Amino acid sequence: MEFALIFPVMLLLVAGGADLARSFFVGMEVADGAREAVLVAADNPYTTYTHAQFTTLIQNTYGGSPLTCPAGDLSVTPAQGPAPSATGATDQFITVTCNLPLLTPLLPSPVTITAKASSLIVKS
């Protein structure tokens, strides 16, 4: 009898812990993907990347495995900084957002995970 009362609560705690760990892992992947995308843009200053190219790069960043954020729930916003300075330097900004659906039915879903990265691009 007591087990029947406690089991649903224990199940929710375990599922909530799994969702928390998954959210943390996806947050690290999103941050790594944003950093990798901005570094690729900085390494190739004369190449203009499309939204699809940035998305593919970010999805394949973490150890070569696809990002665990569902493909339709990943958005990438590349943006250039202010006009280049006299030395030709400009900033490249990347914002990556993932709307992660949770597994636990009682928690608000989806959770929005956002990471921003920037790099100085110097064209020589």
Write the layout of secondary structure elements.
Layout: H1 2-43, H2 51-59, E1 74-80, E2 89-100, E3 111-122
Antiparallel strand pairs: 1-2, 2-3
Explain this structure to me?
The chain is an alpha+beta fold and 124 residues long. It is built from two helices and three strands; from the N terminus they run H-H-E-E-E. A three-stranded antiparallel sheet has the order 1-2-3, covered by helices on one side. The longest helix is centred in the first third of the chain and has 42 residues, at 2-43. It is rod-shaped and about 75 Å long.
Taking the alpha carbons of the first and last residues, their distance comes to: 75 Å
Number of helices: 2
The side-by-side strand order for the widest beta sheet comes to 1-2-3
Radius of gyration: 19 Å
Q: Kindly report the average pLDDT value.
A: 78
Keywords:
3-stranded antiparallel sheet; 2 helices; alpha+beta
Brief write-up:
The chain is α+β, with helices and mostly antiparallel strands and 124 residues long.
